[in-house]
Design the sequence.
């Protein structure tokens, strides 16, 4: 019986990234790792009830998210791509 090898986290995911102005308006301007950015965005989306009622995979934009999204609604799969475009490397 082989013992499971513990996975080490990828250092690239743990590197703090500085959000630009649009992203900072939602999550704050402190540099945080990509994983934390995703978590904070979902916290904001859920706290403001922005998931589409009919299709939970869609996220509706409010005044803070519209400049970030560039449109009224995105899918949860587009969220990761938006993060890359809205952080300073």
Sequence:
């Amino acid at each position: 019986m082989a013992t499971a090898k513990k996975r080490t986290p990828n250092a690239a995911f743990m590197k703090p990234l500085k959000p630009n102005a649009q992203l900072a308006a939602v999550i704050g301007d402190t540099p945080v790792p990509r994983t934390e950015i995703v978590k904070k965005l979902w916290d904001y989306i859920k706290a403001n009830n922005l998931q589409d009622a009919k299709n939970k995979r869609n996220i509706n934009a409010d005044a803070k998210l519209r400049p970030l999204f560039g449109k009224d609604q995105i899918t949860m799969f587009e969220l990761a791509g938006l993060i890359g475009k809205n952080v300073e490397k």
